[in-house]
Amino acid sequence: FLYFIGQMNRRMGGNRVVLLLVVVVAVCFLVKTQGKGPSPYGLNEKVGKQKQVSDVVLTSVSELPAYLRTVAERELVDRLYRVDEKDARLTVPDTFQDKVKEMFKAYPGGSESLHFVEKQTLVTIRNKVTYEHSLFNKIRRYRPGYREKLTQEEEDLLQKQLTESEGANCDFCNPDRTASDIFGKIYGKFCYVASNVAKYEKWHSLLIAKAHSPLDISEEAVVDYILTAKKWFQAVNSADPTAVAPHLMWDATGRASASQIHQHMQMSINNFYYQKAEESREKARQYTALYGGNMWADIAEVHDSLGLAIRKGDAVLLVHLTPVKEREVVVVGRSGDESFAVLLHLAVAALMDAGTRAFSAGIVFEDLSEHTPHIPAVARIIDRGAPNDVRNDVGAMEFYGSNNVGQDPFELMQKVRATYNRLSSQQ
Question: What is the largest CA-CA distance in the chain?
Fold first, then answer.
């Protein structure tokens, strides 16, 4: 800056008035731009300086509309979200009452009175930037066939099946019975990488855990999974510089569409991001162009203000306000920061503590071309239901409509906090 001023002084022949004007303009520019622009990984300083765990505690999404009406500063909430409360009315005839009472016998407080059926309150939340839209109605958690936990007998049977499938009959338990990429296998402490023999992308491999059970997941292992995945992405990028958009997909148990019981993940890297990832990234770019801020930083700030966030290092965990399905938890941050993997493990552990025995997760890593360095890595994970449930957990509404969700994010946050406290006490 001083060098610049000196050069300008010489060119203007020592004209002090003009020089003064140049200095004033330059200083104003520096002040205006200092600290401006998006944070490199979506966690701006304002968010980063807040508490690791918010003090705000709402117990149910049904409390959210009334709470927001009391919030004085809600510009960011209103920019990002539309929250609606809707009352639905119906009449259950005498000829149908016994059947409905039986259908909802698990409803808290019992189903002797059908007032909760005839007068239902729904809360819908729409992200006005990404267009994600989730519909919440507590009663749907108690409809026939909906279960949140296995019985102890079912739990014992599941563990028996997982144990019996391990060993000599499992290809993934034996790395020499898996294929290799053209540059060879990559090994981590808790996993190794094998090439997928039925590819859906040019560069498509498997990250295979050394632990057989898809439910045996430690924090140390998740840190190693992310590190090893990044090594594979870099190896591919070195062999093919056009491969710059990394993805990782993680399905646990057959209920979540895993074709093998053994714990594993699908990795792929392409010259552009897949549809859903690119839609989110494009919205983030548009948001920055329109508001000058960072979409994920602002989403994190809203979640933090509602008590739905836990942060660590350069990463933040969000119990999502607009989940795509049950118990969705989102982790946003820099994938090279260990905190990202630590919070991803917290998300997995919290879901398992809550009873999840099948889950699907997707991680979109940063662009290796660095064309969009301000867009962070994003991991999302959902519960897929009981492993032995014969009914599918998604249907036409999920494919072609909006997100129909039974689980309450504020209730889930209480479970995440409990797991966070449990894991913290063990350190």
Answer: 98
Q: Which of 79, 67, 65, 68 is nearest to 130 (CA)?
A: 79
Q: Is 104 helix (H, G, I), strand (E, B) or coil?
A: coil
Q: What is the pTM of this model?
A: 0.86
Q: Give the Cα separation of 225 and 219 in Å (integer).
A: 10
Cα torsion 47, 50, 52, 56 to 10°: value is: -100
CA atoms within 13 A on the CB side of 355: 13
Whole-number Å distance between alpha carbons of 319 and 327: 8
pLDDT tens track for 276-307: 999 999 999 999 999 988 999 999 999 999 99
* DSSP-assigned letter for residue 189: S
Q: How far apart are the first and last CA of the chain?
A: 48
Cα–chain center distance at 393? 19
In this predicted model, what pLDDT tens digit does every residue of 344-395 receive, in sequence order? Answer: 999 999 999 999 999 999 999 999 997 777 799 999 999 998 877 777 888 8
- Give 198's DSSP letter: S
Positive or negative: CA dihedral 400, 123, 61, 334: positive
Determine contact, residues 359/348, Cβ cutoff 8 Å: yes
